[in-house]
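Hey, can you fold this one?
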Amino acid sequence: MDKVKEKILVIGGGLSGVHTCKKLLEKGLEVTLIDEGEGMEVDPCYREDGRAYFERCLKTLKDNSHISIREATSLKSIKGEAGAFEVVLSKEGGEEEDSFGAIVAAIPYSYEPIFPQWGLSPSPHILSTDSAEREFSSSKGKGEVFVFLMDFEQETNPISFKRSISLAKKITKAGGRAFIITRYAKVACPGMEKLVSEAKQEGIIIIKSPSSPSISLNGTIRVQTYDTILERSVEIEADKVVVEDRPLPGPSAKRLAQLLMIHQDPSGFLQTNNVRRVPIFTNRKGIFVSGTAAGIKPFYQVLTDGLNVALEACLLAKGESIYGAKTEIEVDTEKCARCLTCYRVCPHGAVAWNGERIVISPLMCEGCGTCASECPMNAIQLKEFADSAVSKEIGQKITPSSPVVIGFCCQNSAFEACEEAVDRGELPGEFSPIKVPCAGKVDVEYIMEALVKGAQGVVIAGCHPGNCRSERGNTFASYRIEAIRKLLKEIGIDPGRVEFIGAASNEWVRFVTKIKEFIAQTHQSH
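Sure. Predicted structure:
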């Protein structure tokens, strides 16, 4: 690739997408914004804080010649790498090919009213939060009693809770009464504690109940619940019931995740719950998430995400954030069986098939070595961590004179903790660490070779679950450990001689403690 394309594709026409486009334009980048049908409008939870800002942003975009806004357009396919993604955009009437230096998923969130949780159906008196907001703009609800039912099956999102309180405040100000029934009062959002305090002072009753309230619709609406403050059951006769709109990933999230080859969190949003990815990064270089694509967030965080994406896109355009894999990687085409195992397991989308052979992009590759360990033919080698070099180091560390525990330590976490322990003089003498790029690089052969050569035990030390830089390196390591333990048991060797330890880079105390426990365990087994 000669030059990074200074054109960015932004997917999503809500607040996150429009704001991100504005920040990209301010950095002098060319932008294409596509809306896949969610609509070019502010997301419901940001109407109060962000409607005016959204409208100003949209006007700015429409007045700028460096952005192309394409509504009712979807991403059909993508190939290439950071700096040069080749995509096909589809809309009614045809398809269009284009190329971009980076791609930003900024799709709006979706939502569903939780009517089924209460056995309710929408009606003029049973409303979703969204419909209640829209109705209240025309009917002030003077003298009416509103009961808000928050989610009792899942934890209420603080932004969703804030939305209900804001509407309740308007109802109270207009002369109505408002009760909010929730399991927990979620205030983990800037300004929420103040908002809750103001709401109570204005006469809004927030009832925290350990169990779901019951609703009777026999002629009148009666809501019965337990109040933990009063320590008794209370009954409220209501004119209207408003159920929470549970936030969900946008309708295109799953399809986009598959097309972009990026991982989703357990709820389906376009970013894993991995501290190494927050706030805008994904498992693939050059593909970012912004705002609500990664989950419903406070308004200020949506704005911050857009700015961060713009800054990273500038670095990418200058070649300062993507060039240079940490280690060179080689594919022996004569050994390669074209089984595509490497393509399936690569957590960064760095492996491609060009029609004749496997190609690994040095820009997308992060050098974790998962592909090398999973390759059944050993056709892939990391130059810095070649099998021959690791084997040699194993042999050098094991001596017949004293028992030794070999530790394969991830360079991003456990090895740094190990170095700190060495500096402090706390690392047990019989523990010998070997640096690996990721726990996912530890081959079964490494572990077996260490045991055959006389190691008392073998530790694979990597990131904690969910915090792996390579997303699933520690998962692959755990699969291999399980397989080896089963094998050891079958041949009459204590399977406890192989162990996985999770440790962050700053957890040297935990690391040392776990190593000492493992060494003591191996002593007992002998």
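The mean pLDDT is 92. Let me know if you want another pass with a different chain boundary.
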